[in-house]
Design brief:
With 158 residues, this protein is α+β, with helices and mostly antiparallel strands. 30% of the residues lie in helices and 14% in strands. The strands form two sheets. A four-stranded antiparallel beta sheet has the order 3-2-1-4, sandwiched between helices. A two-stranded antiparallel sheet has the order 5-6.
Length: 158
């Protein structure tokens, strides 16, 4: 798998982060880790987060399309944020050390997650999950608080 590019000067500016979100979103699709408009990315910024908008293909995104949201869920942008904004926001609240969230749909991971079972340590990279397995949250409707709560439970102590 291709290693993410090292941050370039200016990426810790709002404009730089918006560009980097788009670049990484496109890289996810190009690598096959994500498809179409599924998945979403965010970065902690100021007193909120920058998140990909809902339903726009990554190859069409422009920096001004990235939505800035406050931690209370409010935003002032013509585009709606990703429908999954809740678990992005809730992850930043629960994990203050975290600065980015990537939600993708890799085909093999999706197939394993559908089984509703933890993914065992079949590879040493599972260690990056912070435990002996990758937990899978139970199914809940996309964009709901129930899904966010389940995702946070899967991340507990990780």
């Amino acid at each position: 798998m291709r290693r993410p590019a090292a941050p370039t000067p200016g990426t810790r500016t709002e404009a730089g982060l918006r560009r980097q979100i788009i670049d990484q979103a496109r890289a996810l699709n190009a690598s096959g880790i994500n498809q179409g408009t599924s998945g979403n990315l965010s970065v902690r910024w100021a007193d909120g987060l920058l998140v990909t908008p809902s339903g726009i293909a990554y190859d069409q995104l422009q920096p001004e399309d990235i939505v800035y949201m406050k931690m209370d869920g409010s935003y002032d942008h013509p585009l709606a944020p990703s429908s999954e904004w809740r678990f992005h926001r809730d992850t930043y609240v629960a994990k203050p050390e975290g600065n980015a969230v990537v939600h993708a749909h890799p085909p093999h991971c999706t197939a394993l997650a559908i089984r509703g079972m933890e993914i065992p340590a079949v590879h040493y990279m599972v260690a990056i999950s912070g435990g002996p397995s990758v937990r899978c949250a139970p199914y809940h409707t996309y964009g709901t608080q129930a899904l966010s709560d389940a995702a946070l439970e899967a991340l507990r102590d990780r």
